[in-house]
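Entry:
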Amino acid sequence: MPNNLASESSPYLLQHKDNPVNWYSWNDESLKIAKDANKPIFLSIGYSSCHWCHVMAHESFENNDVAKIMNENFINIKVDREERPDLDDIYQKVCQMSTGQGGWPLSVFLTPEQRPFYVGTYFPVLDSYGRPGFGSLCRQLAQSWKEKPKEIESTADNFMTNLSRLERVTEPSQISKSILDEAAVNLLQIADTNYGGFGQAPKFPNASNLSFMFRYSKLSGISKFKDFALLTLKKMANGGIFDQIGGGFHRYSTDARWLVPHFEKMLYDNALLPIVYCEAYQITKDNFFLDVVTKTLDYVIREMTSPEGVFYSAQDADTNGEEGQTFVWKKREIEEILGSDSEIFCIYFDVTDGGNFEGKTILANNIKTSAIAFKFNKTEDEVNRIILEGSSKLLETRNKRTQPGKDDKVLTAWNGLMISAFVKGYKISGKSKYLDVALTATDFYQEQFEKHGVLQRVFKDGKSKLNAYLDDYAYLANAVVDMFEITGKQNYLNFAIKLSNHLIEHFWDDKNSNFFFTADDHEKLIIRPKSNYDLSMPSGNSVAANTLLRLYHITQEEKFHKISQKILESQATLAAENPFAFGYMLNVLYLEIQKPTEITILNTQNSQIISTLNKKFLPESIMVIISDNDELDTLSKFSFFAGKEFPTDQTNVFVCKNFSCSLPLTSISDVEENL
């Protein structure tokens, strides 16, 4: 018989609706039940594509004996961390303080007042892996709750004291190039110069840190930073972490060589990584990087786009309970599908009889087409054709297999990242379909905002729910500025300003010079959390600082610059000392230190100028393209556009920096001289 989760919309919660555990969702009713019964809360936080969440569910939450213990002694609450990142943030911090690490599933035992007293991640059903069995742990904690209440309260007090310390005020730092110098050196110290990436296994993509390497290399003139980022991007794109035939990136690599991924695909990775690959293409003009961008964006269009034109959250790592089943191959399968072309294909993707993953093969490439062409006395074009056609045939076969589960809820923040990726992809590829996708998604959110008067976090099955968080507003506002730059349409600028003003009004913490993660009318939790670290995703504060800085230069609205600067000053020293956790923030610091170059393009008649500029690596620039005189007229109230006349028969480019503007420039050579 289904439990209380049966009426939920979250794919993750629905995965547990038939558990014998009497699950509740997080709401006023379930919290009141805990208080009225004076029962501790067992809080389980995870997400639909989380492999170890599935393992713990199968071992413990589907176990009738364990469920009986849980039901008798606790109020059991399930939370989708993607719907409620505020709860996840709070209790992850507790877990990291207690155990030195975090992750999912997150398992937290709380008092009825939501105060934590025991925390961990995955617990096996029986004692193993150096961890207590979950059933016996529940018994012990239930007994302690009844017999040692003072000890429970003391532990909870300690956790709360330490949590409050995390919200300490940081002394503002002076923003200077030395911050970037220190950060770059510190970041390179943890770099893996053999295989790319940072640290050893497991390895995560860390897109923002790679973008910073590109920027610092340009700033300093030291090529080793750029070279390292390019090495990393090539190793990832050639490895198993990249879906070689279907496009898109898996979550992370379990080894140092990027070969064996954790097979889930998250929307945010497939938004953040194309952006840095776009930058790699702009720097090198190497079509290898362009190919990765187009394959990833095409994957998102093909498999992760809703009928409304917005983007789903994730694909599962598991198929039929087996991780990676959909994505791996036996050599004989490939031989049957490709026939005489299979030998070349198998050499190219390192397919062997024994395989490289549990007797099967994860496709990865570590050999150049030139070497294969030489071996088989073929041209490189012939080899590339065999690889391309073979990939298409294998993808067709793979699509007939059972597919991994899909989390089809739509998250505003992650959609903001994805919109930015499609804009960047359009700029370097010139493919109008990418701009069309970005336009559709942006217009969807503009309509939603006008309808509700606020942003909402989640959209699923035609309905929106949950008031949005800091990252929802910040990521989307940043994406809308991207849309304004590429289209020159004032409605997008107005929308970005509205989102930013709402953010300032309802999220700003003037005392600590940063944004809260939750709005001022949000449900009261044990603390009001902050988002300051750039890890798998950039922090809301980093992206907000970037958005406001860009808006300031476009609008000259001083409050935008003031707030952006306060955030940067509050984080600068921490970013220098711990650059791995502040990659995106360092990129914003770079923009502030460099003082953005303002580029205005009037009239799109000369497509060569626009295409050339779109393909240049200009991270310190704000570039707005205006296609008609009416748009320019509406924007003339902003100093960025004031005094400029729209040419009727040519493309004029204005380059402004250091409070000085060029005359109208009409050739790409003149533009490049002024950059």
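DSSP finds 26 helices and 21 strands in the chain.
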